[in-house]
Amino acid sequence: MTDPMFLTRADLLARMSPGRLETAVRRGELFRVARGIYSTVAPTDRLRLRALHEVRDLVFTGQTAMDLYADRPVGWPVEARHPGPGRRTTEAHVRSGVPGRLRARDGLTVVSPLQAVMDAASSAGHSDFLTGAYAGIGAHDVLERDLAALVTGRQRARELLASTPTGTASRLEQVAFRLVRDALSDLPVTVLTNRMLGNYCYDLLIPEAKVAVEIDSFTFHAVGGAETTPQSFVKQVWKDNEATHLGWLVRHYTEFCIYRAEEYVTSDLRRCVLPRISRSPGALPDAQGDAVFAWHPIYRKEPWRP
């Protein structure tokens, strides 16, 4: 297929009369792709999206972005964002402001999955989409950064994510969940997996006691671990700080503790949980300020000294 060539009406009128332009359209030499945009190739939905992206600098969001993530046909008018003022046309409903953390989908630029849900007509009913979008190893870190980069809807996003499981439980986390569940099975508490608390995602939450549990493998958490970085170290420090400020107690257990020291983990957990149980735990709290990604120079690759 020939690569489409996008031409604006202004470009074309600089080289031909309005009558000649209309004749070219009637003869199939040119095709109207969008308002004021023409192409040498017959328009398809994907071609129209490309025209709006390349000529109008639109970044797709809302249901349109979700459809692109899922490789589904998009509906019209599309939902998009633009650095300039918002506007509504028969082709696009455009919001003002472009967030960070953009993605590329088949040559088109889309917002993060989280921003797409926040920009949709209703953020309800998209829990499965978010669970699928933020699955796999490293998904929690991606989600936390996407949350920090939201243009709007940060509080609504935290409320939604508090009840949305994300990430993928590793074998270690699955064993840890069963250990914690069994250790507390006689108590009036629930154990939530992979949930947001404030700005950050935790492996396990026990809301009735305001206890968060982090499972720390050597690979991702220990000094010298293959996936341990200065950024991961800084994040863990501020992650614990925020949970403490929100009134939560954070417990860290290593891989060895989960596999070889169950009795010590059980004893430690019960000692922490029992005196903190509340029969009315309420909703998970909102964050206090920005996540560390938003202000620490280590995440912007700026020079800094300890």
Number of strands: 13
Shape: elongated
- By CATH, the superfamily of the largest domain comes out as VSR Endonuclease
The order of strands across the largest sheet is 4-5-7-6
Q: From the alpha-carbon coordinates, what is the Rg to the nearest angstrom? A: 25 Å
How many helices? The count is 13
End-to-end separation in angstroms reads 56 Å
Keywords:
13 strands, 18% strand, 306 residues, four-stranded mixed β-sheet, elongated, Endonuclease, Chain A, alpha+beta, 13 helices
3D architecture notes:
The structure is a single chain. The protein is α+β, with helices and mostly antiparallel strands and 306 residues long. It folds into two domains: 44-133, no CATH class; 169-294, Endonuclease, Chain A, CATH 3.40.960. The chain contains 13 helices and 13 strands. Helix 4 (62-69) packs antiparallel against helix 5. The longest helix is centred in the last third of the chain and has 16 residues, at 230-245. The model has no long low-confidence stretch (mean pLDDT 87).
